[in-house]
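A note from the maintainers: we've had questions about how concatenated examples are separated. There is no special marker in the raw files; a new sequence line simply starts the next protein. For clarity in this README we add a label.
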Amino acid sequence: MDPGSVAGAGLVIGAFFLVVGASGLVGRLARALPPTVAAGLQLGLGLSLAMLGIHLVEVQIWFGIVVCALMLVLMRFPRVPVALVAVIAGGVFGVVTGITPPPSHLALGLHLPHLVWPIWEQVWNGVERAVLPQIPLTLTNAIIVTAAVSRQLFPDSSSRVNERNLSLTTGLANLMAAPFGGYLMCHGAGGISGHFRFGARTATAPVLIGLIFLSLGLLLGQGGYELLRTIPSAVLDGLLLFSGIDLALSSKPSSYQGAELFLVVLMAAVGVAVNPAAAFAIGVPIAYGIRHGWLKV
C-alpha cells in the first residue's frame, strides 16, 4: 500500500474501534464469551509468538542460543532489567562484531513528520487490504485477550484495562497517528506479557518507551531507525520467545477438563495453524454448544 492507503486504513480502523468502544458493543461481546474462548486464543497466540521467536533465532543460530541462555541466567535476578540489558549489550556487540551494520548517519536536529491526507480511492484500498483482515485479529488479540491477560497479571488494579477502554484507546491512537504516517497499531497480549516478564509493573515503563521512540524520531529522524537496526535479530527474537512462553503458560489450560480442555487445545491449534480470527470463529459456537450441553467430549 502507498502512504495514502496506509493513512486511510488507519483512519477507518481508528473510527471503527472508537465507535464500538464508545457504544459499549465490544464490552457486551466480551462479557458474552465463555472464558474458554479467551484461554484458547491466549494459548494459541503465546505458542505462535514462541514459535516465531524460535524460527527467527535460527537466522543467527549460535548467537541466538547464547543470547537465550544468558537471558535465562539473568532472569533469576528479579531486579535486573533483562530486556534493557539485552538490547543495549546486543546492539554494542552486534556493531563491534559486524553482525549488524553501524548507523551510517546520526545528526541531531528536528525531524517533523509530513502530513498524509488520503483520497477516497486510497481509503478504499486501505480498507480492502488492511482494515477488513485486521478487525477480527485486533478484536481477539488486542482487546479480548489483552484484557484477560491484564486481569491475570494485575488482579488488583486491572479494572481500567477493560475491553471498552482498550477499544477506545486503539481507536484514538490510530486516528491521531494515521495522518502523520503512522501504521495501523493496537494493544497486544504478547506485549503486556513481555513487559511483565522483563520487569515492568507500572505505567512508567510504557511511558519511558514512548518518550524514547518519540525522541529518536524527532531528534534523529531516519538515524533513529538505523540506530535501532544495530540490535541483532537474535536478541529481539529471544525476547519474543520468552514472552510467547509466558503468554501461553498464563492461559492455564490445566485448569480446564473434558470438553472445555478440548476446546482450548482446539482453538490454540487453529490459532497457530491459521490465525486468532479463525480460532475465534470456530471456538465460539463450540463453546456455546458445550455450555448448553449440546456437545460432550
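[label: protein 2]
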Amino acid sequence: MTLFENVRVLSFNPPSVSPATDVAVEDGKIAAIGQALAERYPQAEKVAGGGRFLSPGLVCSHTHLYSALARGMIVDIKPSKDFAQQLRNLWWRLDRAIDLPILESSALAGCADAVMSGVTSLVDHHASPEAIDGSLSVIRKAYEEIGLRGLLCYETTDRNGDEGSRAGVRENVRFAKETAADRAAGKAVLTEACIGGHAPFTLGDGDLAALADAVKTTGRGFHIHVAEDKYDAVDSRHRHGLDPIARLDKFGLLRPLSIIGHGVWLTESEVALMNERDAFLAHNARSNMNNAVGYNGLLTKHRNVVLGTDGMGADMLEEFKFAVFRHRESQGPWWPGEFLACMDRGNRLLERYFSIGAKSAEKPVFGKVETGAAADLVLWDYETPTPLVADNVAGHLAFGLSARSVNSVMVAGRFAVRDRSPCFDAERIGAKAREQAQRLWTRMGDRA
C-alpha cells in the first residue's frame, strides 16, 4: 500500500486542481482521498508529496514501438517523391528487418522512454513480417517488465503475400485468446488485444473478411491506418468503388472499439459514419507534419478524437503541444482545452477494452484520481510561475508543463519511476537497444 501525502490533485476531465490532500493506493486502485490518511493507513509506504501535483497517467493512443530503434538511423535510403515511396523505401524495409531479438529491445526501449515521460498506457500497432508468430507476446513481456498498461495488435497486410496476411490474422487471434485466458484465470493483466490491419490499400476484400471474422470471434476492436495519405482514399474509390471508411463498414469493422489512425483525407460522410458507429480517430500531429501528408481539416467534426504519436516517441505532452500549435496554424477553432479533452479520451478507449468480459461492478475507471479508479498516476515537480487553477490547466500543459517535470510514475499501483529514477534496469535496456539497433540497420541495408 502507498500513501501520497500533501499532494494537489491535477485532473484533466473536467480540469481541476485540488487543495493539498492525501491519496491512498491499495491493490492497484485508489483506496481513499482525504486529509490525514496516515492515521487511517499507518502501515502504508509514505510518499512525501511536498505540495507537488498528482495527476492521472497519460495515454498514447496510437504508436509503433517497432520504430524505437530507428532514431538517427544510418542507412542508405532512396529519396522519396511521395508518401507511398517513403513507405516502400524506408518503413517497409525497416519492419521486414525486425527479428524477435530486435523487437524485444525495440519494445523495451520504447516502453522505457514512454514511462519516463509520464505515459502510463500505450496503444501499439505492430509489424514485423519476418517475425510474426509470437511477436505480440514479446511486446507484452516488455510492457510487463517496464510496468506499462496498453493495447496491442499486429498490423495485418497483404503486401508480403497471402501467407503473410494469414499469419497476421492468426497472430492477432492468438494474442486475443492469450489475454482472454489469463483474465479468465483471474490474472491481473496490463495488456489487452485489438485486431490490427495496416491500411485499406494493402488489404484485399478477402483480408478484410478474415479480419472481420477475427473481430467477431474475439470480441475485440479493429485498429488500422486509414487515409493517412490521399493515395489511400483514391485507391479505395478506384479499386473498390467505395470510400475507405464505407468499405470497412461494409465488412463490419467500424465499431465502438475501432481505432482509425490519421484519417487526414476522410470525407464529411465518412466522419459522420465513424461518429454513427462511435469509433475513435487517433490524431498524430507530429507524424503527419513529418510525412507531409496534409492537415485534417475535419478534425473538429469527429466525436471521439484521441491523440497518438504514430511511433515518433511517446512524449504525450510534446504531442499535445504540437496538436495545439498545428491546429492554430491551420486557423482551426479549437483551443488547448479541446485537445486536453482529446488526450484524456484515450482513457475511454482503455475503459472499453479492459471492460470486455467484466461485470458491471468490476468495470475499470481510468484517467481519474478518485476512489476506485485505477492507480495509474504521475507525480509532477512543477514550479509554476503563475497560478494553476481549473480554468487554465490546459494552458499550463500547452505552455509550461513538460516531461522534464515527471518525478514519479505509478501503473496499477506499482512504481515504474520513483524520484526521477526508473524502477527497471534502464542501463541494460539501453545498452542492448544500441546493439540491436546496429543489427536492425545492417539488416535494412540487406533489404534494399
